[in-house]
Amino acid sequence: MKKQIEAMNQAKEKLEVRISDLNTGIKKKANEKATAEALYREMLLEDSSGEKTHSTTELNKVKQRAEALELEIQVDSDRLQVLEAGKEGAVKKFLPDIQAARIRALEGIKVELDKIEEEARELRAKLTLKVMEANVPLKKAQELLQDLKGAEYMAGVPWDRQTTDVGVPTKPKLYTMMPIGMGQGTKTYDESCIMPAEEELIKAYARGEVPAWIKHYANTGKLVTDEEAREHAAKRSNSSEGKGFVDRLLNR
């Protein structure tokens, strides 16, 4: 597609150069014509007053030059008008090739996106299977609770005072609750959650942006909090500022 756009740009530039040359030529010839006409009038005055004699041949030569320039200006103006009128069409004719090139390029891009989506779905399946592994230790904790409740029952502990807390999370940490007052809260998705937020995925897809802790993981393979990742980034930035230009280039 870039090749086709470059061809369009070259054609446009060629037209603009031609138009510019014609405009320059017309102005130059107009000046020459004005000079020839002024000279012709001056020669006529000199000849009429007897100040200086000019032959018919001399006068005719200057007059013909002015008339020839007038004709050249008219022809060049016609050429300019044709070029200006056809400029848009001359450039627009490249659009079908550009559009076709875009369609061909999109086919390859869609294949890339489909592959990435398939890999992402595979990671989703792996995530769900990994979370399912937590069901085994959760059941152990639930069995411990049942054993404790049985012991409490035998010990005569009233049912409303028996232990009900399993002691471990009973569901995966999909979000955290941020208190907003009056006993209410709002869901937030920080780095401690196992599932990315919708906005997080959209930013990664559409803008190529990820949270600081994910960027840190991509660079180091280490999981840290978002705050820790920002601190690491700030330290690297300060360290880089203390180096010379050449050192920064060599240690990128």
Short descriptors:
252 residues; mainly alpha; two-stranded antiparallel sheet; 8 helices; rod-shaped
Average pLDDT for all residues:
88
Tell me the series of helices and strands, N- to C-terminal.
HHHHEEHHHH
Q: Return residue spans where pLDDT drops below 50 for at least 5 consecutive residues.
A: 244-252
Give the CA-based shape.
rod-shaped
Q: What is the count of DSSP helices, taking H or I runs of 4+ residues? A: 8
Q: Structural class, please?
A: mainly alpha
What about the largest sheet?
2 strands, antiparallel
Work out the helicity level.
Answer: over 70%
* Count of individual beta strands: 2
Distance between the termini: 33 Å
Radius of gyration: 42 Å
- The percentage of residues in β strands lies in under 5%
Identify the strand order in the major beta sheet.
1-2
Question: How would you characterize the overall build of this protein?
Answer:
The model is unreliable at 244-252 (pLDDT under 50). Strands 1-2 form a two-stranded antiparallel sheet. With 252 residues, the protein is mainly alpha-helical. Among the domains are: 2-100; 176-250, no CATH class. Helix content is 73%, strand content 4%.
What is the topological layout?
Elements: H1 2-49, H2 56-92, H3 95-132, H4 135-154, E1 176-181, E2 184-188, H5 198-207, H6 212-220, H7 226-241, H8 245-250
Keywords: Coiled coil
Region (Disordered): 227-252
Coiled coil: 5-79, 106-133
